[in-house]
Amino acid sequence: MFLATVLLYPCVLAALCVGTALLVERAAGAALPGGLLLPVGAAGAIAVSQLCVLAYPLAPATPFVLAAVALCGLLSSRARLAALSSGVRARPLALAVSLLAYCFALAPVLAAGRPSFSSYMALADSAVHLAGAEYLISHGLRFAHLDLANSYGQFMSGYYNNSYPSGADTLLGGSAPLLGLPLIWAFQPFNAFMLACGVGPAWLLARRVGLRGAWAALAALTIVLPALVYAYELLGSVKEVTALALILTLGVFVAGHERWLGRGARRGLPFAIVLAGGVSALGVAFGVWALVATVVLAAIMARRCVDRAQLRSVLALLALAAVALAIAALPTWIHLRGSITVASNIAGTSNSGNLRSALRASQALGVWLGGSYKLVPHGADWAATRVLIVIVLGAAALGVFNLLRRRAFALAAWIALSLIAWLLITRSATTWAAAKALMLTSPVVLLLAWSGVAALRSMPARAASWALAGGLALALGGGVLVSDALQYHSANLAPTARYQELASLDARFAGRGPTLFTDFDEYSLYELRDLDIGGPNFVYPPPALAAAAGGYGLPVRLDAIAPQALRAYPLIVTRRDPAAPRPPAAYRLAWQGSYYEVWERRPGARAALVHVALSGSARAQCVAVGRLAATAPSRARIAAAAPPPQVSVDLARSSHPRGWGHARRGLAMNRAGTLYATVNVPFAGVWDVWVRGQLMPAVVLALDGRRLASIAGQLSGNSLVPNVAPPFPVRLAAGRHVVSVRRGGFALAPGGAGGAVLDGIVLSPAGRSSRLYSRASAAWRSLCGRRYSWVELIGAPVPAQNG
User: Fold this and answer.
1) Which segments in the chain show pLDDT lower than 50?
2) Per the omega criterion (within 30 degrees of 0), is the bond before 514 cis?
3) What is the C-alpha separation between 498 and 725, in angstroms, rounded?
4) How far apart are CA 551 and CA 644, in angstroms?
5) Which residues, at least 6 apart from 617, have a Cβ–Cβ distance to it below 8 Å?
6) 344-358: buried (b, 16+ CB within 10 Å) or exposed (e) per residue?
7) Could you give the residue ranges of the DSSP H alpha helices within 352-457?
8) Three-state DSSP class for residue 556
9) Rounded to whole angstroms, how far apart are CA atoms 155 and 167?
């Protein structure tokens, strides 16, 4: 699976894009520059996938339609393919840079050596894209059958039935099935590939400013990988990453306008296809960058229209381009009002997403020597960042001079208008939209800085000019790549094994929903898509269960749900946790994995009349049970759930490094060191050791000096909902034992600088789970003497599991 996602899948994407681009070439009647084949083909493939989901009976055939279109292009352009192949063999550097950009973008997953993605715990938007991509390819733009009483239906309707941009989603959803790949594992390679598609246009723009060979190669690499762009790629911002390659492609069309503008109406087709792809991927917000390119081209055409024949040629080009644009982005135009509303809501939202504050304008310069784009670097890193900022600004100033000296007025106008558009968006939009505009502008700023390198190389004193240009290139390239490396080192990767378990759970129980999901993980919208799940702590909770969590991302409390409200859920999926109370008595355990348990409603089980959570001593609980029994009608029964025996390690009394801070219930293991704590086991036997916490870098768990496991990549949806790693069984004698947890020093592995928070360590007898006791209400006293998680008053007998 890993090799298929990181090696075979990008090859399939490349074949789809190249084949589609060759078909666009034939329609345009002229060859495109080789560097534009991937982005133009991607735009064309987006258009095809969008038309398929619009005609929703055709949606499931989208992968085959995409393959057929690409195959037509490849078979009809064999001579062109041979020429392209010869060109790559003669000049392999451009292809090598594209491959290098892909590897940089996918570095966390490649280094981990397992299918995963890097946006985990950063922003859950990619969960929506995954679920939406699968839904659109399965059902198209058809939403009438959705269950709006649960989270899955609300998400799909709330986003995609309201004109949310889906061009990148339909290309992802239409391409990964060609290899039978789960979208969740194809997501990061897809983002990396789309980012690498920007290398070709970046290379062509670098050549326009006067760079060649290795200079153009390094420029192209850094133009597509500035720190903020890399951060958004790691974040899984698939809309923006896809749009970025198309924006750079528009810049190439503007800079190289003499190749196609005024040379026949058909020559404008590739430009129109790129506009359509951008609008489909980013929505009408892409109109800002479309307008920038169109204004420059309109000014050029206005200068050329000196006679009637030229005017007719221009009008024919505009008419054909408008028709192509209208057809290729038809779903957006049909739902234009909704698309405008979505763009307006994003631009005007007061919700800043995962940003604590607005980003700094200086982040557009591509260098940011910190592990997070959301935080200002500190100490020496901030001092070095400021030095690099000054260098980039100086290079950009030289770049302006270089463009004017080279009389590259069209390119200069495109860059100038792009910067003006960014300034206007920043002034009018709120934090979230302004941050996206900043990210999309950053490559343009880097292009201008590399134009400054070209200016130095053109100085008369050759030795001095090369030395100065080399130093500036090293500062630009080094600053960008070091910034990216720091973010790579802080990336949090999604837990592969847990999602594979959810996928198996979905296959086993498909169609048996609705299902109540008590964990906080919105990626379950994709993994449990066949269970019609409802998450009380999701952005869109089931209305009847919203109070069970008390807010977005907070723990779900089953005890807060009225028993009657649970009748709508045949299944409940919970995390395995010895400290968590089991679901109500109407449910029995149907399946247990390493991470999750599935509880199914017993046939004919009645909802409890009353459900009461219990705490305190056994005597106090006995009193509570008696009070409940006193209210019982005739023939009613009392059911009570007793948690398994467990022993907790007291972290507050542990020995650990002073540099470890406190994080809510536990300890933030901020640097290398070892924690030692004691625990008393009441009886001999096999015990399960459970570790709670958010643990991205590897930590080593040991008991009495004996290593039990190395735990890494064990993360949950957020830091508010406890994350519990699968238990580690160990045979112990009764008495005192020493537990240790060690975090190692610096490591090159992805997430080596990521979060490591230890919330707790619990031991419980292996194989023991919560026990359910049931008694006639008159015999309630026989329940006394134990401690329970909850007690219920039920109107019909419930078979007891124990007791």
Assistant:
1) 798, 802-803
2) yes
3) 10
4) 29
5) 787
6) eebbeeeeeeeeeee
7) 380-405, 409-428, 431-457
8) coil
9) 17
Distance in angstroms (rounded) separating the CA atoms of residues 126 and 755: 20
Contact, 195 vs 106, CB < 8 A? no
Residue 24 CA: distances (Å) to CA of 203, 276, 534: 21, 13, 44
pLDDT at residue 633, rounded to an integer: 85
- Does residue 109 contact residue 188 with C-beta atoms inside 8 Å? yes
Residue holding tokens 């004919």? Answer: 604
Q: Tell me if 235 sits within 8 A of 213, measured CB to CB.
A: no
What pLDDT, on a 0 to 100 scale, did the predictor assign at position 752? 74
DSSP 43-54: HHHHHHHHHHHH
- DSSP state, 262? T
Q: What token pair was written down for 330?
A: 């038809």
Tokens matching residue 576: 């395995």
Tell me what pLDDT residue 263 has: 74
Tokens 């391409």 correspond to 175
- Give the whole-angstrom CA distance, residue 616 versus residue 627: 15
Cα-flanking dihedrals φ and ψ of residue 491, to 5°? -70, 145
The two tokens of residue 454 are 């070209």
Q: Is 655 exposed, middle or buried (0-12, 13-18, 19+ CB in 10 A)?
A: exposed
Contact 746, 560 (CB under 8 A): no
Determine the pLDDT at residue 606: 82
Contact 121, 718 (CB under 8 A): yes
Distance, in Å, from the CA atom of 509 to the CA atom of 519, rounded to the nearest integer, reads: 17
d(CA 737, CA 102): 49
The set of residues, in sequence order, having a beta carbon less than 8 Å from that of 435 and lying 6+ positions away, is 355, 358, 359
User: To which residue do tokens 């550097």 refer?
Assistant: 93
Angle between helix 93-105 and helix 199-208 axes, rounded to 10 deg: 130
Q: Which residues pair with 638 in a beta bridge?
A: 775, 793
DSSP of 76-103, one letter per residue?
TTHHHHHHHHHHHHH-THHHHHHHHHHH
SS3 call for 703: strand
- Parallel, antiparallel, or unpaired: how do β-strands 571-575 and 596-601 relate? antiparallel
Contact (CB, 8 A) for 734 and 763? no
Neighbouring-strand partners of residue 677: 739
451 contacts: CB under 8 Å, gap ≥ 6: 209, 210, 396, 398, 399, 400, 402, 403
pLDDT for residue 106: 94
Q: Which residues contact 164 (CB under 8 A, 6 or more apart)?
A: 132, 283, 342
The first and second tokens of residue 208, run together, are 């326009």
Give CA separation, 357 vs 281, 452, 784, in Å. Answer: 26, 32, 54
Dist. CA 91–CA 84, nearest whole Å: 10
Residues 6+ apart with CB under 8 A from 629: 638, 777, 778, 780, 793
Q: H or E element: which one contains 590? A: strand 587-592
Neighbours of 405 (CB within 10 A): 12
Backbone Cα Rg of the chain = 30
Q: CB of 599 within 8 A of CB of 589?
A: yes
pLDDT at 300: 85
Going by the DSSP 8-state scheme, the letter that residue 6 receives in this structure is: I
**pLDDT score, position 803:** 40
User: Which two structure tokens, joined as six digits, stand for 89?
Assistant: 């063999």
Beta-carbon neighbour count of residue 378 at 10 Å? Answer: 11
Question: For residues 575 and 597, what is the distance between their CA atoms, to the nearest angstrom?
Answer: 6
CA–CA distance, 687 with 683 (Å, rounded to integer): 10
- Positive or negative, the CA dihedral 575, 578, 579, 582 is positive
Say if CB 285 and CB 346 are below 8 A apart.
Answer: yes
- The confidence score (pLDDT) of residue 309 equals 63
- Give the number of residues written for the chain: 803
The DSSP H or E segment spanning 622 is helix 618-630
Answer whether CATH 2.60.120.260 is correct for domain 647-765: yes
Place of tokens 């009353």: 610
